[in-house]
Structures are given as structure tokens and as C-alpha cells.
Amino acid sequence: MIDGEGVVVDLPRRRMLGLNPTASLIWQRIGTATEDEIAHELTQRFDVAPAQAREDVLGFLAEIEARGFLRRD
User: CB atoms < 10 A from the CB of 10, how many?
Assistant: First the structure.
């Protein structure tokens, strides 16, 4: 976290990714919660419908995986 914003740094590739509050929450919960649990948490913290929260989680995970910041086995 830098000045309240989440930042993911890939030092070997010299890349950074800034995260908004929603993305920061998702990033923090990767590996400790299921996609559904993260989506539920988004509905509790932000004014978002369950379907939108699930879409946000899946979209963010797909984006960071495509950018090489996440590898799912």
C-alpha cells in the first residue's frame, strides 16, 4: 500500500500495477478465500450487487493472470 492505494510490483520485469480499493481487497484475499467469498466480501464493503461483485472478482483475476501477475494451477 502506497498512500492508500494498492500497488503490485514485479521487480524482475520492472512492472507495476496500481490497484483501486476493490482490486486491492481482491488482491489481499487471493490464496486465503474463494472467489465466492471474495465477492461476498465486496458486497459487504462496497455498494455492489452480488452478481456485479462476482463479475468484478473474475474480471480482475483474469486481467492480472493475462498480465503475468498471477498464475493459477
Answer: 12
Q: What are phi and psi of 34, to 5 degrees?
A: -75, 165
23 grid coordinates? 482490486
HSE, side-chain direction, 13 A CA sphere, residue 6: 12
Q: Report pLDDT digits (tens) over 16-44.
A: 888 898 999 999 999 999 999 999 999 99
Q: How far is CA 17 from CA 34, 49, 50, in A?
A: 22, 26, 26
Residues sharing a CB contact under 8 Å with residue 28, sequence separation 6 or more, in sequence order = 6
Residue spans of the domains in the chain: they are 21-73
Of the candidates 21, 16, 29, which has an alpha carbon nearest to the alpha carbon of residue 3? 21
